[in-house]
Design brief:
Butyryl-CoA Dehydrogenase, subunit A, domain 3, Butyryl-CoA Dehydrogenase, subunit A, domain 2, 3 domains, three-stranded antiparallel sheet, globular, oxidoreductase, peroxisome, Acyl-CoA_Oxase/DH_mid-dom_sf
């Protein structure tokens, strides 16, 4: 199925739609070429076409299409919808070869995608860890969705730290089998996606024992349910749904415990580990091989966060342009669009800028992640630690900033933002769980900080991401004194690097002082935990701006207005982060109060500059109304009309049956209340 959508075709599809006059005016005044920007944002026109095609497939499928009526559906109805939709999505995943398609789909659907873990995590792990002989048997079934696999690394007591897993796999030489066992409740595999109800198999990470000697962590492909009768669990396995959750309540997150489960020797994934009949183990793998695919998954999370923030930014920009406020002056009553108020600009436009930085950084990071996987498969782990440190820092910082950003965007829309029909609640629900996916932010940031401490001492470091730590002189005072200097992205990157340097050197000094005081290494880490998080964030700020800066050099230099908009977004992000972390710069006496005032002036100047093309920037995300799932963020700008229609005609609470039930209950309650009133 092919689809080529030119700018002319996109416009034609909206010719018969009544447009809100405010948005119509904004689009006419917009100076950027939306189609050119959309093509650049998606890397090329082919990728843009694929993105539009996926959205079109969802919009035209009666099961996948978003329906306002399904918001707040009953638990039974929700599970039926999940099952039906996932059957359709599985067909799309089977047909599409783009490894990032699950991340696109996760942002488009309003219910969980149960096949996402199977496709985006487990199949790549099979290709990485299973031998050629094993793949010949397993892979065709997995790709055809004849079996559905979940990823079982996290444990209740240890999170996602592979080194700490306590599930055990003992080799029984007499029967040539493995015995999989959960030794205590803390070793329960926990929060496993698709495990509670759906998965037929699991890639289970366990401590391998041969002749009672621990050999290290190994991966097993273990059957969970009978494939012909999926509801029937196999003996020796206890599985269930974890509970109702704060975010993603409908997600199939499960737990599993193994009770002396016997599996065949072939269950051990054997590309990098072999076990002969004498019980002799040969390990060829490096643990970084196991992490390379999880790193890619974390990079995928960055894409999802960027897309979700883009959805929320689209809703807020469109609604704040539709919504007018009026004020009286000496010339009478005047109307002004909500986005023209500085306080609304400060809530909305930094999030729009941030979404662009995250998405363009993702393009740079996905290439780096893929290169790391290819090198690891060849036994070259030279960039593995760096890619892990970068991906850890990105996931931790972008998860937090995106959640805060969406909340700011929701608040910018006033009390309408509280409505389920605004679209914000669904986005917030999805984003709120990201900081805890795979590993919590604290452990991710700790690894990044440790990595940077090593790089601080590496005088031969030539990595473009970290060489500033020891090749760049620490500047005691910021020497930028004019607006023009604060509008140079190279200068702003230098300021962000200075903060990272200050924090790295401070952390190093604290650790050295504690070691001299004979404190243990663990005590040192605990007492510097806050500083490690700050260092990780400071470094990640440099990664985001550096990657963004590199990416925008690839745009056609003739697209002046797009380039200027990109420049403003980079300035807004960098200066916003400097303002939000100004206490560090003041503490190190790097920025003066006078310079801070100048920074604020430049920041507000570029908010106003970006506001002029805000509608074109959100339209360039190329998100359909079906993907945004918001009454107030529709492309036409008919926010009030759509919201009224959904509330009155699509809201289950306003159905005639519901009204009869509620009215009957009210009448009965009032009658009882009257009868129970005391007589005086």
């Amino acid at each position: 199925m092919e689809l080529v959508l030119t700018q002319k075709q996109i416009r034609k599809s909206f010719e018969n739609i009544k447009m809100n006059p405010n948005l119509e005016e904004e689009r006419k005044k917009c100076s950027i070429n939306v189609f050119e920007l959309a093509s650049f944002l998606h890397s090329n026109t082919d990728s843009l076409d694929q993105f539009l095609l996926i959205q079109k497939m969802f919009e035209e499928d009666p099961l996948l299409k978003f329906k306002p009526e399904d918001i707040g559906a009953s638990t039974e109805r929700t599970h039926i919808l999940i099952a039906q939709r996932n059957a359709c999505i599985s067909k799309i995943l089977k047909a599409e070869k783009n490894i990032w398609i699950e991340n696109y789909i996760n942002c488009m659907v309003d219910l969980p995608v149960s096949s996402s873990v199977h496709s985006s995590v487990c199949i790549p792990y099979l290709k990485l860890l299973a031998s050629d002989e094993q793949l010949a048997t397993i892979l065709p079934k997995a790709e055809a969705f004849q079996i559905q696999i979940c990823y079982c690394s996290a444990e209740l007591a240890h999170g996602s730290d592979l080194n700490s897993v306590q599930t055990e796999a003992h080799y029984d030489e007499q029967t040539d089998e493995f015995i999989i066992n959960t030794p205590h409740h803390g070793a329960t595999k926990w929060w496993i996606g698709d495990y509670g109800k759906l998965a037929t198999h699991g890639i289970v990470f366990s401590q391998l024992f041969v002749n009672k000697v621990k050999q290290g962590v190994a991966a097993f492909l273990i059957p969970i349910r009978n494939t012909s009768q999926q509801a029937q669990l196999l003996p020796g396995i206890v599985v269930g749904d974890v509970e109702t959750k704060h975010a993603g309540a409908q997600n199939d997150n499960g737990f599993v415990r193994f009770n002396q489960l016997r599996v065949t020797k072939e269950s051990l994934l054997q590309r990098y580990i072999t076990l002969n009949k004498k019980g002799q183990v040969q390990l060829q793998e490096n643990k970084k091989i196991l992490l390379s695919n999880m790193i890619q998954k974390r990079i995928g999370h960055v894409l999802e966060l960027g897309l979700l923030l883009a959805q929320a930014s689209t809703i807020a920009v469109r609604f704040s342009l539709v919504q007018d406020r009026y004020y009286n002056d000496q010339f009478g009553t005047k109307y002004i669009k909500n986005l023209d108020y500085q306080v609304i600009q400060q809530k909305v436009l930094p999030q729009l800028s941030q979404s662009y930085l995250i998405l363009l950084t993702w393009f740079e990071m996905k290439n780096l992640s893929q290169r790391n996987i290819e090198l690891c498969q060849k036994g070259d782990f030279s960039i593995s630690s760096e890619v892990k440190a970068i991906s850890n820092g990105l996931k931790a910082l972008t998860s937090r900033l995106s959640y805060i950003g969406v909340e700011n965007l929701r608040q910018a829309c006033g009390n309408v933002g509280l409505s389920q029909y605004s679209g914000f609640n669904q986005i917030l629900s999805k984003i709120s769980s990201f900081p805890l996916y795979e590993a919590d932010s604290v452990s991710l940031q700790e690894y990044t900080a440790k990595f940077l401490q090593k790089k601080l001492k590496d005088k031969n470091d030539e990595s473009p991401f970290t060489k500033f730590l020891n090749h760049q002189r620490v500047q005691s005072k910021c020497n930028l004194l004019s607006e023009h200097e604060y509008e140079d992205l190279t200068n702003l990157l230098f300021i962000l690097e200075q903060r990272a340097q200050f924090l790295a050197l401070t952390l190093q000094k604290k650790i050295e002082q504690q070691e001299i005081a004979n404190k243990t290494k663990q005590t040192s880490l605990e007492s510097t935990e806050s500083l490690t998080a700050e260092l990780s964030d400071a470094f990640t700020d440099t990664v985001l701006l550096r990657s963004f800066k590199k990416r925008i050099t690839k745009i056609n230099q003739g697209q002046f207005d797009i380039i200027e908009s990109f420049k403003s977004m980079g300035i807004i992000y960098a200066l916003g982060r400097i303002i939000n972390t100004v206490s560090d710069y003041i503490q190190y006496e790097y920025i003066s109060v006078k310079q801070l005032k100048l920074i604020n002036q430049v920041y507000k100047k570029h908010l106003l500059k970006l506001r002029a093309n805000a509608i074109g920037l959100v339209d360039s995300f190329s998100l359909s109304d079906n993907s945004i799932k918001s009454a107030i963020g529709v492309f036409s700008g008919q926010a009030y009309e759509t919201l009224n229609d959904w509330v009155q005609n699509k809201n289950p609470n306003n159905s005639e049956d519901e009204k009869r039930i509620v009215n009957s209950a009210i009448v009965q309650a009032r009658s009882q209340l009257i009868q129970q009133q005391p007589k005086f």
